[in-house]
Write a structure and sequence with these properties.
The complex is a heterodimer of chains A (178) and B (173). In chain A, 38% of the residues lie in helices and 20% in strands. Chain A is of the alpha+beta class. Chain A is elongated and about 75 Å long. Chain B contains eight helices and no strands. Classes of the chains: A alpha+beta (178), B mainly alpha (173). Chains A and B meet through helix 1, helix 2 and strand 4 of A and helix 2, helix 3, helix 4 and helix 8 of B.
């Protein structure tokens, strides 16, 4: 099959412009968003903050081991709190302290089982040989916590107290099936 | 729009690490027009979406969510970020089942506009044709950006070209 362009079309292709002036307001709109972004931590700083938060959570768990008179029983269902960032999250200078206080409080009451920070990059694998290297999408899921709660309503109440929400992020609550 | 300078690599690395506004304006002056027109073509001419894609691309670069290794030119790399943002736009946008493009003109006296013929292609065909035949990306590069293998890129390009040729032959019949 002849896959080449006929002469007329090939010439038109060659003459197509490769750039076009965007609307004037677009540049300033982007600059405005950049100014907002500079008021919050950079990704590497967020990683440190998140690592500090998770570290504080685990420190709280270890320090309070065996001291949870009100701790849920081992049979209590567990829920994943999937922490999702928005462009407006992580403002504020007291972030680490707030997250740490929250995590320690939950750990003290035996509700926080664990948590991890996820890398900003990852992959989405689909059936067949397609492997999509999605550097951008996975950045929206920042990490997760595992909590014990009697039911999803109780888990939701725990999630609702997380300071992450105050900074515009969201938390998805999912029961861990056992 | 000014021509890209030789210090583009340094500028983009600085922009990735600092996100500062002055560096942005310099890079935008050099590459914003190319990014915008690429986004516009990838969206089939939908300007509001194209603007959103360009904005998202710059913010992703500034937030260091993507790395520049210097193997490609700055413009090629920035356009790659645009392609990724456009693909995310495809996945997020709600496409009406009965969404219709404007019917292509069959009036033999109308001059078929090549841009319009490309715009009317299905998303996947348009994406590969725009990247390969207009912007000069190789199938290997397209495969890496779009998450498809080289064979798929080639077959989509072939089919895209065929459709555009058919449009032209309809008009001149």
């Amino acid at each position: 099959m002849n896959d080449r362009w006929p002469g007329e079309l090939e010439e038109q292709l060659r003459n197509l412009p490769r750039e076009e002036n965007p609307p004037r307001e677009l540049e300033e709109r982007i600059a405005g968003q950049l100014r907002k972004m500079r008021s919050r931590p950079l990704p590497w700083q967020r990683s440190l903050i998140m690592a500090a938060v998770v570290g504080a959570a685990f420190f709280g768990l270890g320090f309070l081991a065996g001291r949870a008179p009100k701790a849920p029983s081992p049979a209590t269902p567990q829920f994943a709190l999937l922490v999702r960032e928005s462009p407006e999250t992580l403002r504020g200078t007291n972030l680490v302290e707030e997250y740490s206080n929250w995590a320690q409080s939950e750990a003290r009451q035996g509700r926080l089982v664990g948590g991890e920070k996820l890398a900003d990059r990852g992959r989405i694998v689909r059936a067949g040989s397609n492997v999509e290297s999605n550097f951008l999408r996975t950045g929206e899921l920042g990490g997760f916590f595992i909590v014990k709660a009697e039911n999803i309503d109780a888990a939701t109440r725990i999630a609702a107290t997380c300071p992450h929400l105050k900074y515009g992020g969201t938390i998805e609550v999912r029961k861990i099936e056992r | 729009m000014s021509e890209p300078s030789r210090s583009d690599d340094d500028l983009v690395r600085r922009f990735i690490s600092t996100g500062d506004e002055e560096t942005f304006h310099r890079l935008y002056a050099s590459h914003g027009g190319a990014m915008y027109l690429l986004a516009k073509r990838l969206t089939g001419g939908r300007e509001p979406e194209a603007q959103d894609i360009v904005q998202e691309a710059w913010l992703r670069v500034a937030s260091a969510r993507t790395a520049f290794d210097g193997r490609a030119s700055v413009r090629t790399w920035l356009c790659g970020v645009v392609v990724n943002c456009a693909r995310e736009q495809y996945r997020r946008s709600i496409r009406e089942v009965n969404e219709e493009h404007e019917e292509p003109s069959t009036n033999a006296r109308d001059r078929i506009d090549l841009e319009r013929a490309i715009r009317d292609l299905p998303d996947g065909f348009r994406e590969v044709l725009v990247l390969h035949d207009i912007y000069g990306y190789t199938h290997e590069e397209i495969g890496a950006m779009c998450g498809i293998d080289i064979g798929t890129s080639k077959s989509q390009l072939s089919r895209a070209r065929q459709r555009v040729r058919e449009r032209f032959s309809e008009v001149t019949r």
